[in-house]
Amino acid sequence: MSKRKIVVMPGDGIGNVVLPEALRALEAAGFEADWISAGIGWEHWVAEGNPLPEKTVELIAEHKVALFGAITSKPKDKAAAEISPALRDKGHVYFSPIVGLRQRFDLDVSIRPCIAFPGNPLNFIRRGADGGAEEPRVNAVIFRQNTEGLYGGVEWTNPPDQVWEALDTHPKFAAFREVPREDLAISTRIFTRAKCRRICEQAFAYAAAHGYGSVTVCEKPNVIRETSGMMLDEARKVHGVYPQIQLWDTNIDAQMMWLTKNPEDYGVIVAGNMFGDIISDGFAGLVGGLGFAASANIGQEVGVFEPTHGSAPKYADLDPSIVNPIAMVLSAVMMLDWLGETETAAKIRDAVAAVIADGTVRCYDMRKLRGGPQAIDQGAATTTQMTDAIIAAL
Ligand code: NAI
Ligand code: MG
Q: What distance in Å separates the CA atoms of residue 321 and residue 18, rounded to the nearest whole number?
C-alpha cells in the first residue's frame, strides 16, 4: 500500500523547530507518511511577493491534509520595506497566509481543545471556599467559526458612496451621518445561516462523540441581535437532534468574567470567529498557554493542523532550542484523530500526559523561567529533550 501523503509547512521562526519534532513523535508512534514539504511565510513574501505560494495551495488541494508550524506577520510598512527590491511598487499586498488558507479551502471549523493535563505546573489554580488552593479540572473544547464574522475582511475606512448610502437606510445610522467620511471606519460582522449551522452541528456531534454533557453558545445575542441571534437560533435547532446534551448560552463578556470562577463547568463551547478567538485564548491560558495550545482548521475536504502560537522570533535562532514542542505535537495528534488514526493519537496523547505528570522533563515555560539560553542551565529541558521524553513514554 502506498503511504499517505501529508503536506508539511514549517513556515517561519520556531515553526521550523517544532514541526520536525512533531514528525519525530508521529513516526516513533508508528505513524508513517510521506511528508511533502511546502513553503509558506515571510521568506516567500520577501522573495516572491506572496507568503502563500500557489504551489503550496496546489499541494494541499491534492493531498487534503497539512501540518503547519507558524508564520511571521509584520505591519504594512515593514512588509513594504522588506520585500525584495525587484518586487517593490509592483502592487504586492501582504496578507496573512493562514487566514488565506482558511479562506481558500473554506476551513470554516476551528477546533481548540483546552484540556488540563494533571501535573502541569502551569494549570490554573484558585482559592477554594476553605481558603486553600484548588485546581479545577479544565476540559473545554472550543468550536470557533473560522471564516466569517469580524474577520471576514469586508471593511472600509472612508467607505464608498454606495456603502455609505446603504448604511444610511438604517435608522441607527443617524448617529454617524455627520461624521466626515474619512473619519469613519467600518468593519462588518457577517454571519451566514449555513456556517452557523455547520459550526453548531460540528460542536454537538463532537460533544456526543466525546461524552460532553453540554454545549455552550458564547455570543452576545442581547446586543448583537442579528448575528449572535442567528448563531443561537441555529444552536437551538441542532440541539433538537441531541436532546441528551444540554444547551447553554453565555455572553462573551460574562464568560470571560466567569472564566476563572468555574471553568470546569464548561464542556464544548461554540462561538463566532472573534469571540471564538477570544474565548479559546482565555481557556488556553488556564491549561498552560502557548506551549500547549493546539488547533485544527477543518473544511469539507481539507484539514490543516497548527499550534496557536506564532513564530516566536526571539527564540527562533537559539541552539539548542528551548521552546515547548507540545502544542505542535498535540496539533499533529488532532490530525491523527481526523484521519481516523485514533489509537496512535491516544498513544501519543497518553505519552505527553505521562511526561507532564512525571515532571522530570519540563521546558522553560513549565519551569516558569525567563526564556533564553540560560534557561537550560536553570533546569529547563530543550525542545529535543521534551520530544525525546514523549517518545520514550510511548
Ligand atoms: P508568539 O506566539 O510567536 O510568541 C509569543 C511568546 O509566547 C514567545 O515570545 C514565547 O515567550 C511564548 N511562546 C510561543 N510559542 C511557544 C512555545 N512553543 N513554547 C514556549 N513558549 C512559547 O507571538 P508574537 O511574539 O506575538 O508573534 C511573533 C510572530 O508570530 C509575529 O510575526 C506574529 O504575527 C506571528 N504569529 C503567527 C501566528 C501563526 O502563525 N498562527 C499566531 C500568532 C502570531
Ligand atoms: Mg488568537
A: 9
